[in-house]
Amino acid sequence: MKIAADISEAAYRRAETFLSGLDQDWARHIAAIGPCRHAAKPTREPYQALVRAIAYQQLHVRAGDAILGRMLALYGDQGEDNFPTAQQLLATEVATLRGCGFSANKIATIHGIAQAALDGVVPVRKEALKMSDEALVERLLPLRGVGRWTVEMLLIYTLERSDILPADDFGVREGYRRLKNLEQTPTRKQIIDIGQAWSPYRTVASWYLWRLPKIPAAEQTI
């Protein structure tokens, strides 16, 4: 199976041209937003990306930043991103992590991810790059607290996959509702069906849809 990982600048421009050609709504929106500025973090290991994603789950970005910052401060200088190893995270007491702001459920989840990394269930980046989207989803979904959206964020931001549509993401579905001026937000199944037309650039399509809710309605009609 082909693994789509091309989200270079040239690929962004191809994606913009492709999506703009779908209809006037897409063309107008992309012209208003401008070039895609998707910022991946390709140097992160999947283990780190998953722990980070759990830290931010159901939280405002500022709250997630604060909790993650307190956790990283526990380990001193660990090099890039000051991130603890799986062994270090497992050795950290629950009470200490609670003091950083993690809930009991999130602590159990990140400890589970750390153990899965040590067991080889969470692949290292080199291995993950060779795996298909579906294979990664299948391997990681059984982990406690790791849902499909979490794996999709790993695919988009860490592994730079170009054709990922996070259909569970309300921002994507609400963005499409506003793009098309619909009365109701599409369901997960509906957006999956609709999104077939955006392939092979569903990652870039999602990026643009995430930005639509931030545009005042009056500007969308210009």
State the helical fraction.
55-70%
What order do the helices and strands follow? HHHHHHHHHHHHHH
Mean pLDDT: 89
Estimated radius of gyration: 19 Å
Q: Span from first to last CA?
A: 42 Å
- How is the quaternary structure best described? single chain
Defining traits:
222 residues, mainly alpha, 14 helices, disordered C terminus
Description:
This protein is mainly α and 222 residues long. It contains 14 helices and no strands. Helix 3 (46-56) crosses helix 10, helix 9 (133-140) packs across helix 10 and helix 11 (170-179) packs across helix 13 (202-211). The longest helix is centred in the middle third of the chain and has 16 residues, at 104-119. Residues 215-222 have low confidence and may be disordered.
In short:
The chain is 59% helix and 0% strand. By secondary structure, the chain is mainly α.
Indicate the topology.
Elements: H1 9-20, H2 24-33, H3 46-56, H4 61-73, H5 86-91, H6 94-100, H7 104-119, H8 125-128, H9 133-140, H10 148-158, H11 170-179, H12 188-195, H13 202-211, H14 217-220
Helix pairs in contact: 3-7, 3-10, 9-10, 11-13
